[in-house]
Amino acid sequence: MRDASSLYKYVGTKGKCKLAQFRGERVVWCRVFVFVFVSVSVFCIVSYFSPLKNKLEKENMAVTASGSAQPQFISSTGNRNLSNAPLIQNSDTNQIVVPDRRSWKNLFAYMGPGFLVSIAYIDPGNFETDLQSGAQYKYELLWIILVASCAALVIQTMAANLGVVTGKHLAEHCRTEYPRVPNFILWIIAEIAIVACDIPEVIGTAFALNMLFNIPVWIGVLLTGLSTLILLALQQYGVRKLEFLIAFLVFTIAACFMAELGYAKPDAKEVLKGLFVPELKGSGATGLAISLLGAMVMPHNLFLHSALVLSRKIPRSVRGIREACRFYMIESAFALMVAFLINVSVISVSGAVCNSPNLNTEDQLSCQDLDLNKASFLLRNVLGKWSSKLFGIALLASGQSSTITGTYAGQYVMQGFLDLRLQPWIRNMLTRCLAIVPSLIVAVIGGSAGAGKLIIIASMILSFELPFALVPLLKFTSSKSKMGAHVNSIMISAVTWIIGTLIMAINIYYLITGFIKLLLHSHVKIVGKVFLGILGFSGMAVYLAGITYLVLFKNKEATHLLALTAPENQQMANEQGTGSIYCLPREDIVSMQLPQSSPTDL
């Protein structure tokens, strides 16, 4: 009887466990269904009502155009054939016109592009690399953040200057400068960089859905496309408000990390030492440093920033152009300073908490393999039991805002290199599908830990691809035939080439040492090692050959009209009339609308 009774109790307990497990899975799938249903419903509602809104806007624009002799539509200053339809259509009433006056009040007219670009410096990829840097090496890699931020300021300022002076963004210059095959290869590399940048956003969004709704990471990866589509659709009703909300959430979590500094109390001397004394100790320090660099200085940001500055209609004079370049530099410096403080606070909190002697066993295990999915415990002192939910909301906002700017960058890359345009939602879905495939495979096989490692790998890819956007930018901005009187000074050129050379040297060093270690410690037979060695070093040779080609390629002697500053050239530009393509301002990217279907759209 005892055996029968104990068996009955065992079976009953086991049945209850299975029932509880079944109920838990049912709750998860119910949440997934609700999320998908709400996402599709919102997208359908917005898509249904948006044609009505666009119709009214077109009618208003037609009325405005009938009463004004000024052109109402604008297009890229690149290839201007009949098939080159306007990238974005908007009326002059939405243009940001900078007054022709010497005043610091003009600075507010230039505010915007730098902050949109700086979103990429506080995306999930940055949070992941910052957390792992602090957990593994405490404050030793803070100097990478300082160097990368200074380099980013110089490089982003050059990208802004290129757009302001020439009226064309970086991708358009590449199309006019390089032959067809190198131009196509550069486009492929830029697209790979955009996909690599989108992978952390996919995984970060999946982690956020896991924190908020307990949805498995691999299912969250599949759902990331829907959430971004909703945000892209909602931009029609005020993208400035949407981006303000996203920035508010991201800076809220940044404020929480800074407040956590007061509880963690990192040693100020150690933090200052980490900022100003370069160190790379440990086997994985070099790889993590490269991923930090790739997460801070992204290739697609160079294309994006050179295009965003075209949203302002500035006075076409020597003084007006110099003022625009100066104010864009100030705006970028302020935005990057905020991003720098956020990254330093994340590393400092992670380093102080994970290396604390009073850490409990559970938190010690989390610090050993720290990723975004486990990082909410770092904010427990500030947010308490709500730390997981609020961190998930900020992580979701960070991923979505970075995805929106990535979509803009992808549009300009495709338009500049290929003179090809896609609707934003199509562009976003193509990039997102390419990013979902590796993220889904890693999430299913390796779980959240594997997904966190994939973020590091994606950041390293960005660092390796940076020279293919940086070298053309350095050459174009150092060319007097393109920049005229606004060409880089000798000191700026020397500093930027040193920065570019150091980045390339670190990448090549890591590639060679990492590949040699892989061959030595692998269990492949000698014949296989020789074959892999030939393939690996051949790939490195191609990598170096591509960079060398870009460095040695001679720029075409073709001066853009907007770069000329001589009086006779100014008179030539004025003689073109108000309908000249050089007098047409570029549309404000911040108020970007989803374009309507037309025969030229793909």
TrEMBL record:
Name of protein: Metal transporter Nramp6
Homology family: Belongs to the NRAMP (TC 2.A.55) family.
A Gene Ontology biological process term: iron ion transmembrane transport
GO cellular-component term (any): plasma membrane
Source taxonomy: Eukaryota, Viridiplantae, Streptophyta, Embryophyta, Tracheophyta
Localization in the cell: Membrane
Keywords: Membrane, Transmembrane, Transmembrane helix
Superkingdom, taxonomy of origin: Eukaryota
InterPro entries recorded: NRAMP_fam
PANTHER family tied to this protein: METAL TRANSPORTER NRAMP1, SOLUTE CARRIER PROTEIN FAMILY 11 MEMBER
Membrane topology (UniProt): Multi-pass membrane protein
GO function term, MF aspect, one: manganese ion transmembrane transporter activity
Main location: membrane
Membrane spanning stretches: 32-51, 142-164, 184-209, 215-234, 246-264, 284-311, 332-353, 390-409, 429-448, 454-474, 486-510, 530-552
Cited Pfam families: Nramp
